[in-house]
Design a protein that fits this description.
GO terms for molecular function: hydrolase activity. This is Alpha/beta hydrolase. Keywords: Hydrolase, Membrane, Transmembrane, Transmembrane helix. InterPro entries: AB_hydrolase_1, AB_hydrolase_fold, AB_hydrolase_sf. It comes from Alkalihalobacterium chitinilyticum. With 290 residues, this protein is α/β, with parallel strands linked by helices. The protein has a single domain, classed as Alpha/Beta hydrolase fold, catalytic domain (Rossmann fold). It contains 11 helices and 11 strands. The strands form 2 sheets. Strands 1-2-4-3-5-6-10-11 form an 8-stranded mixed β-sheet, sandwiched between helices. Strands 7-9-8 form a 3-stranded antiparallel β-sheet. 45% of the residues are buried.
């Protein structure tokens, strides 16, 4: 695993290059308050077949943090420039939560740059009730903790992240700036998250569904935010979207919530991704032979 910086759209972006084998590249996009290291567990299980990259979106992690520009469309434009800077013609785009929304919009804006799309517990317009339930994740933003141990103790008590494991440890370690006095503070800012949320309340994701032209796998977390209606994509809408897309597929990740789908149920999540991409590859080979 290597950390890299590249310039795109006039900003410095941090990229985690997990390495990997295979001619195709998977590009992973994280969620609202997340960072690129949320993909560690999944990436470890994909690199034997693919090259895997993950980016910190503008304003997150170790990427540059401009004063404005926090919208799904702007992120899609950033990713377009990043892919060009990486000299890639196409990528398999994998997005979680906000990253899935960005994946939908990116695929509608730049269809030729995506060979397959993987939407992990997201991909439709934001429901109002979701915002309140994301508060535990948002509250840690800009809050300073005396030690990383104190920070870890607090986040490890959040039900979404139980049980604690090494993947969560590394993810949250990367989530904060480690100050000289031992204190830590989130690398992102509330102003950034608030601007993002304001823009997310303006419906646009669902309008892009009909423009998706690539095989798409939708992975769904049935326990999402532990609420009966607060989904980043509902089961009904996920199934309908999969049926709408040529080569679409909907899969439930058993027992998963919105975060454990990456940090705990990663074996099944990665397996479903690998199986689906194999099916797509075989389908393309059959189409070529006809």
């Amino acid at each position: 695993m290597k950390n890299k910086k590249i310039e795109a759209n006039g900003l410095q972006f941090h990229i985690v290059d997990y390495g990997g084998q295979g001619e195709e590249t998977i590009l992973c996009i994280h969620g609202l308050t997340a960072n690129a290291r949320c993909w560690d567990a999944i990436a470890e299980r994909l690199i034997h077949r693919y090259r895997v990259l993950a980016i910190d979106l503008r304003g997150r992690g170790d990427s540059e943090k401009p004063q404005s520009g926090y919208s799904v469309k702007q992120h899609a434009e950033d990713i377009n420039k990043i892919i060009q800077q990486l000299n890639l013609d196409q990528v398999i785009l994998v997005g979680h939560s906000l990253g899935a929304m960005i994946g939908v919009v990116f695929s509608s804006m730049y269809p030729k740059m995506v060979s397959s799309l993987i939407l992990i517990d997201g991909g439709e317009d934001l429901r109002p009730e979701v915002v309140d339930l994301l508060k535990p994740s948002i509250e840690r933003v800009e809050k300073q903790y005396e030690t990383f141990a104190g920070y870890k103790a607090q986040v490890s008590e959040i039900p979404f992240f139980s049980p604690w494991n090494d993947y969560l440890e590394q993810y949250f370690y990367a989530d904060v700036t480690h100050c000289d006095d031992g204190s830590v503070v989130s690398k992102t800012k509330k102003k950034i998250i608030n601007e993002e949320l304001i823009n997310l309340t303006k419906p646009m994701i669902n309008d892009c569904h009909a423009a998706i032209q690539v095989p798409t796998l939708i992975l769904w977390a049935p326990n999402c935010l532990f609420h009966p209606t607060a989904y980043l994509i509902s089961k009904d809408n996920g199934m309908k979207l999969a049926q709408m897309i040529d080569g679409g597929k909907f899969v439930e990740i058993r027992g998963a919530n919105h975060f454990s789908i990456l940090f705990h149920e990663y074996q099944q999540t990665a397996s479903e991704i690998l199986d689906y991409l194999h099916e797509v590859s075989v389908g393309k080979l059959h189409a070529t032979k006809m």
